[in-house]
C-alpha cells in the first residue's frame, strides 16, 4: 500500500467536490507496554482496517467549515477541537495554503467505540484537503502529519493490516497472502473514554491485577499467513479488554452471546466498548449478527470484512 503507484494524484485545477472514504480499524493484537513520560503507552499492535466507512466531502469555500450527519451528529463538537478541523488546519500550515474548505462528514463509525472513528475522520480530512488544495503530498508525508493528530491516524491513511509500534503511530504493512476475513462488530449503547481505559490498565498493573506481557505478535502473524479463521481466532489478544470489562462489566455477556453459533474469537476492539467476532465466512457472520441482535446485549451488530484500504478519494 505504500507503493508510490498507488498514491492518489489530485487532478490539477479541481473545483468540484472531493469525496473520501475511510474505514474503521480493529486491533487483532494489542499489547500495551509501559507508560511513557509523555503520557502515552508503548504499544505493540496489529491494526486491521474493516469495511465500515465514514465519508468526508470537501468543497471549495471562503473559510473552514464543518457539518456532519449520522453517528454522533449533534453530540460531536464541530469547532477547533474536532479532529477533522485540526487535520485540515495542520495540512494548510504545513503547505502554506489558506485553510479554506467546506467539509461535510457522514459518520457510520460510532464515536468512542474503540474503532478509531475520530482518527479515521482526521485521516480522511488530510487526504481530502490534499486533493482539494492540490498539495500533492506523498502517503508517507501525510502519515507524518497524521501522527501529530493522533496515534491511530497514520494507520488510517495506510489501511490494510499493519504493525503499529511506538505509541501506535509507527506503522508498517504486514505482508500476508491476500485473504478476506469476515468479522462481526457489536456496538454498545454508550462509548468508553480511551484515556479512562488506559488509566484502568495502569491501576490494575499497579495493584498486581494485570501483568505486562512481552508484545511481539509472532503467532498472530503466522496465523494470518495460514488463512484459517479458527487458527487466527486463537491468537487474538487485547490488553485493554480486561480494563474495558472492568469499566463496563456487561461486555462479558456480549462477548459470550454468540457462543450458540460458535463465533470464533470474540474480543473487545481497541479500548472498547465495541466487541468483534471472527466468522468462518459471510453466512456465519450473518448468523452471528442475528444472534447478537436478538440477544439485546448490544445496540446493533453488523458484518464487515477486512483488510480494506485506508482513506481514499472515491
Ligand atoms: O493518540 P490519541 O490522542 O488518539 O490517544 C488518546 C489517548 O489514549 C491518549 O491521550 C492516552 O490517554 C491514550 N493512549 C495511550 N497510549 C497510546 C495511545 C493512546 O495511553 N499508545
Question: Could you name the key traits of this structure?
Answer:
2 domains, binds cytidine-5'-monophosphate, four-stranded antiparallel sheet, Alpha-Beta Plaits, Ribosomal Protein S5, domain 2, 28% strand, alpha+beta, 314 residues
Structure description:
- This protein is of the alpha+beta class.
- The protein has two domains: 4-174, 2-Layer Sandwich (Ribosomal Protein S5, domain 2), CATH 3.30.230.10; 181-306, GHMP kinase, C-terminal domain (Alpha-Beta Plaits).
- 32% of the residues lie in helices and 28% in strands.
- The protein is built from ten helices and twelve strands.
- It has helices at 83-95, 117-132, 139-149, 153-158, 194-206, 218-226, 229-233, 241-247, 251-256, 282-295, and strands spanning 18-35, 41-59, 64-70, 101-107, 161-165, 170-173, 181-187, 237-238, 264-268, 275-279, 300-306, 312-313.
- The strands form two sheets. Strands 1, 2, 3, 4, 5, 6, 8 and 12 form an eight-stranded mixed beta sheet that branches. Strands 9-10-7-11 form a four-stranded antiparallel beta sheet.
- Helix 1 runs parallel beside helix 2, helix 1 (83-95) packs across helix 3 and helix 5 crosses helix 8.
- It is globular.
- The chain starts with 17 loop residues before the first strand and ends with a strand.
- The model is unreliable at 1-7 (pLDDT under 50).
- Bound molecules: cytidine-5'-monophosphate (C5P).
- Cytidine-5'-monophosphate is lined by residues 40-41, 43, 119, 150-152, 167-168, 194-195, 198.
Amino acid at each position: 500500500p505504500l507503493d508510490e503507484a498507488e498514491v492518489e494524484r489530485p487532478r490539477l485545477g479541481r473545483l468540484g467536490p472531493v469525496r473520501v472514504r475511510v474505514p474503521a480499524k480493529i486491533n487483532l493484537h494489542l499489547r500495551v507496554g509501559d507508560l511513557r513520560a509523555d503520557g502515552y503507552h508503548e504499544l505493540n499492535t496489529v491494526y486491521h482496517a474493516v469495511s465500515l466507512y465514514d465519508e468526508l466531502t470537501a468543497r471549495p469555500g471562503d473559510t473552514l467549515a464543518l457539518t456532519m450527519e449520522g453517528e454522533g451528529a449533534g453530540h460531536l463538537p464541530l469547532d477547533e477541537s474536532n479532529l477533522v478541523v485540526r487535520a485540515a488546519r495542520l495540512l494548510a500550515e504545513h503547505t502554506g495554503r489558506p485553510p479554506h474548505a467546506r467539509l461535510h462528514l457522514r459518520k457510520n463509525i460510532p464515536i468512542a467505540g474503540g474503532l478509531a472513528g475520530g482518527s479515521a475522520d482526521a485521516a480522511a480530512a488530510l487526504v481530502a484537503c490534499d486533493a482539494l488544495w492540490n498539495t500533492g503530498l506523498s502517503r508517507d508525508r501525510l502519515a507524518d502529519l497524521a501522527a501529530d493528530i493522533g496515534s491511530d491516524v497514520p494507520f488510517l491513511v495506510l489501511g490494510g493490516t499493519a504493525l503499529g509500534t511506538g505509541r501506535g503511530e509507527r506503522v508498517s504493512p504486514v505482508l500476508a497472502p491476500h485473504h478476506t476475513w469476515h468479522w462481526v462488530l457489536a456496538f454498545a449503547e454508550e462509548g468508553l473514554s480511551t484515556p479512562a481505559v488506559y488509566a484502568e490498565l495502569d491501576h490494575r498493573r499497579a495493584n498486581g491485577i494485570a501483568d505486562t506481557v512481552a508484545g511481539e505478535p509472532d503467532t498472530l502473524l503466522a496465523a494470518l499467513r495460514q488463512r484459517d479463521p479458527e487458527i487466527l481466532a486463537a491468537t487474538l489478544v487485547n490488553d485493554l479488554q480486561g480494563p474495558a470489562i472492568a469499566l463496563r462489566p456487561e461486555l462479558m455477556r456480549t462477548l459470550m452471546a454468540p457462543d450458540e453459533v460458535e463465533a470464533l474469537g470474540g474480543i473487545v476492539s481497541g479500548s472498547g466498548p465495541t466487541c468483534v467476532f471472527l466468522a468462518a465466512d459471510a453466512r456465519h457472520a450473518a448468523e452471528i449478527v442475528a444472534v447478537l441482535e436478538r440477544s439485546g446485549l448490544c445496540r446493533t451488530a453488523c458484518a464487515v470484512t477486512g483488510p480494506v484500504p485506508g482513506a481514499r478519494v472515491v
